[in-house]
Amino acid sequence: MLCGSVLILARMLTITQALYDRIVAHARADHPDEACGVIAGPAGSGRPERFVPMLNAARSPTFYEFDSTDLLALYREMDDRDEEPVVIYHSHTATEAYPSRTDVSYAGEPGAHYVLVSTADTDGGGPFQFRSFRIVDGEITEEDVRVVPSS
Amino acid sequence: MAIEVRIPTILRTYTDGQKAVEGGGATIDELFKDLETRHPGIRERLVDEAGELRRFVNVYLNDEDVRFLGGIATELGDGDSVTILPAVAGGAA
After folding, report:
1. Which chain A residues contact residue B88 at CB under 8 A?
2. Is the dihedral of CA B14, B15, B16, B17 positive or negative?
3. Which residue from A52, A87, A149, A150 has the fewest beta carbons nearer than 10 Å?
4. Is A69 part of any domain?
5. Domain boundaries in chain B?
6. Is the peptide bond before A127 cis (omega within 30 degrees of 0)?
7. pLDDT value of residue A9
8. What's a Pfam family this protein contains (chain B) (predicted)?
9. pLDDT of residue A3
10. Strand, coil or helix: A63
């Protein structure tokens, strides 16, 4: 379509197939523990580009936490590259891909897309889910996920 | 005593959008009380009712998480740099 301007939709995550697949693969690999990580992108662009899987320091099926030293290194690196965490992802391994009360209480990046996947299907617990949310001031807003071909 | 304090996005509403501010104090506790005088409301986001660091924030003195040093009583020196970051955590529990 010949179109001069790009329509920015506020409530949508646009992600390449390759990055989508990497999140799914990470969640599958770490099941039954929760997997977590970030996709960084140029500050202000809202474009997830650089996949950064993180270690779940809690190594737990019901909790995740970035190791505090890794967290500082990650933020310094993003700062140096003029990036921000566009996507913060983690998996739920026995429940649906919807932010828990714990997720909401910890959500400290109002500008990020919080992606949740559920690997509960591994143990026969319903279909695989990949969903995205904004979590701002304790309020959850689900948004559409648009997967585009990798360039 | 000048300490540079790096402020995360979520707390920049208290610092007029500034990424870093200066503060003073001999400990993290004093530093946060000093910040509160110029950035009202910020201390409550960092420290709980019992006077301890909130679980949801990580505070670093230079490269070290202060939880592995002296916590909120960690001593500061001139030229030190303090970084505040929201913990990235959660989960189904």
Report:
1. 36, 38, 54, 65-66, 71, 88, 106, 108-109
2. negative
3. A149
4. yes
5. 3-86
6. no
7. 44
8. ThiS
9. 45
10. coil
Q: Determine, yes or no, domain membership for A5.
A: no
Out of 3.10.20.30, 1.10.1330.10, 1.10.630.10, 3.40.50.970, which CATH number does the structure's domain B3-86 have? 3.10.20.30
Q: B17 touching A, CB under 8 A?
A: no
Give the closest of A60, A65, A109 to B10, CB-based.
A109
Mind listing the pLDDT tens digit for each residue in A81-103? Answer: 999 999 999 999 999 999 999 99
Residues A88 and A112: beta-carbon distance below 8 Å: yes
Say how many domains are in chain A: 1
Predicted model pTM: 0.91
Q: How far apart are CA A24 and CA A147, in angstroms?
A: 13
CATH number at A121 reads 3.40.140.10
Q: Note down the domain range covering A81.
A: 12-148
- Residue B86 touches chain A, beta carbons under 8 Å: yes
Distance CA A145, CA A75 (A): 25
Instruction: Give per-residue pLDDT as tens, A24-75.
Output: 999 999 999 999 999 999 999 999 999 999 999 999 999 999 999 999 999 9
Average pLDDT (B34-63) is 97
CA distance A48 to chain B (A): 18
- CB contacts of B86 in chain A (<8 Å) are 106, 108-109
